[in-house]
Amino acid sequence: MALSVTDLRVYYQTLRGEVKALDGVTFSVADGEIMGLAGESGSGKSTLAKSLIRLDGRMRHAGGTVELDGRTLPIADDRAMDEFRFREVSLIPQYSMSALNPTRKIGKMVGELLAARGVPGGTAELERRLELVGLSKDVLGRYPIELSGGMKQRVVMVVSTLLNPSLLIADEVTSALDVSSQKAVATTLLGFRDHGLVTSMMVVTHDISLVYQIADTILVMYAGRLAEKAPAEVLVTAPRHPYTRQLVSALPEVGVRYEDRRLAGIPGNPPSLLNPPGGCRFRDRCPVAFEQCAEQPPFAEVAPGHLVACWKAE
Amino acid sequence: MRRYFGRKLLVYGLTFFVAVTVNWMIPRFMPGDPVQSMLSRANVAQPAAVEAMRAHYTAMFGFDLPLWRQYLNFWGSLLRGDLGISIWLFPTPVTDVIVRAVPYTLGLLIPSILLSWVAGNRFGAFAARRKWLDNTVLPLGYVLTATPYMWLAILLAWAFGIIAGIFPVAGAYGYDLQPSWSGEFLGSLAQHWFLPFASLFLVAFGGWAIGMRNMIIYELEADYVNYLRALGAPMRLVRRYAFRNAILPQVTGLALQLGVLVAGALVTEIVFSYPGLGHLILQAIQNQDFFLLQGTFLFVVVGVLIANFVIDIAYVLVDPRTRTGMGGTA
């Protein structure tokens, strides 16, 4: 088991109190698994992704553990985490366009980063990997401003995976791209896994239709908790959680004329995470809610590899 | 690259031309008559002698020519390096008067500008990372940078010169000394130099420190910093990058501030009766000395232009983004 997260809680500290963005999350990612992490804005998916590599100043680790390849990640200890970052856990950030220092040549910056992390040399490997994503080694002698957006994205992808991390977190990497670049990025991510450059991967996105193309499994989050995890095919074709069902039905389908039929949305809004209500958090928007939903349903396995947090999922 | 510097040189050339023209105009359209003041200084009683002297002086300074001729003559002699003859220190050439004053002004300006810039930037970057420093010392920086130069100068002169009596408050060296390379003279020189230097240094220091502190905080929030931190880069490397990127706007700031700093130095010199260019400007205005005023202004303008040009070149060297812009049509 590459990654196993147990009852992880991460809260944001605000002036009005603690926002429970991640409130008791338990799941695991197998070796070689590409897991899509989907959810709407504010569902806690980015918080989860960040928690596994670097908590920012406002985030507080309120409980739970993260284990990677049998070692506990000290996620609350910024210094102790440094040892794991880049080597064990790595990140392709949402902001690839501005992730490189604008006043350093790319090759020099990577060299300085590697030297600072105690990894000497590596230039030959870097050039080989650039070639793998279709970039010539000339980009190492250029400044980020001299590269197109797509090239910068590929450079960042190469840099992030340079030390063959056990877990790669891709945080909304395709959000800012056009459809053809999205496809290229998805293919590259798949290539990283298939070439054995990264062991497992977590692809964070709000776009289920994209993650469906590359992910083995998809995990859906809602209001700081897990809703459903299933193999990608199953989750899209036979979802069991009412939220996932509505989410999937809100996706456009090929061959349907939406002039004739309006695309369905999910009425209502997610609850505030400042003082979230008890029980199932989807209760207020759920078409099948009943009395038992006042109690938090467990995230239980209803079929092999299919976990759902809903009383009516069986 | 050549295009870039060609265009820069053209802009500087135009600025120089306009500055020299304005420079020539100001004293001539100022109220007062310099020849009259020389005549009254001579204190001659006979009207005939006065008339003869007036004609002599007017012809000598070229005031009898039409304005456009005076203007052309001015350019002509300027290109020959001749700035005319001082009226105040008649008959010393203006060039000599300025050359005597320039070392004092440069001796004040260069150390105070460079040291305040370097020290202010370092201190600001340092303070940005320490809350207690940020909360205690930076308000002081705001006060310093908001202080007018001459006011701080007067305050320092009063506190350290009059009350504490540690430093002298007037002149560049003791009145009982002759310039020489003796230890006594150099010591006196340093002692007289300290307070005007300190007042210039402190005001500029506050401004640089605040600017740098804000820039560093901004840079440490930048995406490339977050990315490096997520890859476990040590804070040392991140700070180095942030400092280098934060210094770029400060270089531009230095170019913008140069004029202000020079003006501040001139006022400070007047407060401390320091015999530099500021002191000369004051004397030239009081004595309606067109030529000296013109010459001093010209010197200041040329100095600021040269310094700006140097900063332009330095900026190209430190920021790769300006270099890539030069390759294209931009």
From TrEMBL, chain A:
<dbReference type="InterPro" id="IPR017871">
    <property type="entry name" value="ABC_transporter-like_CS"/>
</dbReference>
<keyword id="KW-0067">ATP-binding</keyword>
<dbReference type="InterPro" id="IPR013563">
    <property type="entry name" value="Oligopep_ABC_C"/>
</dbReference>
<keyword id="KW-0813">Transport</keyword>
<dbReference type="InterPro" id="IPR027417">
    <property type="entry name" value="P-loop_NTPase"/>
</dbReference>
<dbReference type="Pfam" id="PF00005">
    <property type="entry name" value="ABC_tran"/>
</dbReference>
<dbReference type="InterPro" id="IPR003593">
    <property type="entry name" value="AAA+_ATPase"/>
</dbReference>
<keyword id="KW-0547">Nucleotide-binding</keyword>
<dbReference type="InterPro" id="IPR003439">
    <property type="entry name" value="ABC_transporter-like_ATP-bd"/>
</dbReference>
<feature type="domain" description="ABC transporter">
    <location>
        <begin position="3"/>
        <end position="248"/>
    </location>
</feature>
<dbReference type="Pfam" id="PF08352">
    <property type="entry name" value="oligo_HPY"/>
</dbReference>
<dbReference type="GO" id="GO:0005524">
    <property type="term" value="F:ATP binding"/>
</dbReference>
<protein>
    <submittedName>
        <fullName>ABC transporter ATP-binding protein</fullName>
    </submittedName>
</protein>
Automatic annotation (TrEMBL), chain B:
<comment type="similarity">
    <text>Belongs to the binding-protein-dependent transport system permease family.</text>
</comment>
<dbReference type="InterPro" id="IPR035906">
    <property type="entry name" value="MetI-like_sf"/>
</dbReference>
<feature type="transmembrane region" description="Helical">
    <location>
        <begin position="246"/>
        <end position="272"/>
    </location>
</feature>
<feature type="transmembrane region" description="Helical">
    <location>
        <begin position="292"/>
        <end position="318"/>
    </location>
</feature>
<feature type="transmembrane region" description="Helical">
    <location>
        <begin position="9"/>
        <end position="26"/>
    </location>
</feature>
<keyword id="KW-0813">Transport</keyword>
<dbReference type="Pfam" id="PF00528">
    <property type="entry name" value="BPD_transp_1"/>
</dbReference>
<protein>
    <submittedName>
        <fullName>ABC transporter permease</fullName>
    </submittedName>
</protein>
<keyword id="KW-0472">Membrane</keyword>
<keyword id="KW-0812">Transmembrane</keyword>
<keyword id="KW-1133">Transmembrane helix</keyword>
<feature type="transmembrane region" description="Helical">
    <location>
        <begin position="193"/>
        <end position="211"/>
    </location>
</feature>
<feature type="transmembrane region" description="Helical">
    <location>
        <begin position="140"/>
        <end position="173"/>
    </location>
</feature>
<feature type="domain" description="ABC transmembrane type-1">
    <location>
        <begin position="102"/>
        <end position="311"/>
    </location>
</feature>
<feature type="transmembrane region" description="Helical">
    <location>
        <begin position="97"/>
        <end position="119"/>
    </location>
</feature>
<dbReference type="InterPro" id="IPR000515">
    <property type="entry name" value="MetI-like"/>
</dbReference>
